[in-house]
Write a structure and sequence with these properties.
Number of strands: 7
Helix content: 25-40%
Mean pLDDT: 97
Number of helices: 10
Shape: globular
Largest sheet: 7 strands, mixed
Amino acid sequence: MKRSIKILAIGNSFSIDAMEYLWHILRAGGVEEVVLGDLFIGGCPVDLHAQNIKDNARTYIYLKNTDGVWHQTPEASLTDGLLDEDWDIVTLQQASHDSGLPETYAPQDEVLDYIKAHRPHARIYWHMTWAYQKDSTHPAFPRYGCDQAAMYQAILNAVQTEILTRPAYVGVIPSGIAIQNLRATPVSDTVTRDGFHLSESHGRYTAALTWAQTLCGVDPATVDWMPEAFADAIRPDLAYIRGAVRAAGDTFPV
């Protein structure tokens, strides 16, 4: 178990979903010092991150959490975030609409090189995101035939061919697998709030628990903390959530 950790995400709204409860869950899981950062642009794909590096664009909102509360800095660049802390871990992810399209992944190499140049000792993880809800109205869902199973398989395939083949990555955070596992329980397909962003109860909690297990070795069964506003909703399904997270870890072992 790690006693201190500094994690920076280069992401979009799906990294916000996954990290919303991460500080509290890591602390509850036994990590004593936690620093989190999230360089965020809504819907941002890896090719835009690569372009922003070339332009030194100050178009990110930089979210930081050292005390259980997220604080915002607008008009930040990737360099600002990378140099703000001596990050132990940096994560990267694809925009949800491109997540199952392998041909969109190539620009990640420029981003990986930039991360390594600025934080050579950081461990880099890929955040595997989730498929849309079966009845999602997201405008990109037709790319996958409006078929959740097809989108999920496409994301898995892209991770296999575009991520696991790149030695720059230490591992994969399997949030998408954990969410799909939870959908196979009585919780069912109710883990998003709008068909694609995670719900503030089961969805975000499951993703954060997946990050904690993958990045810090936190056993889901040892975490009793729940967001107060959603604890009554989460508690009856906690065993399903923990099981979904644990099984996702077995797919991409730490």
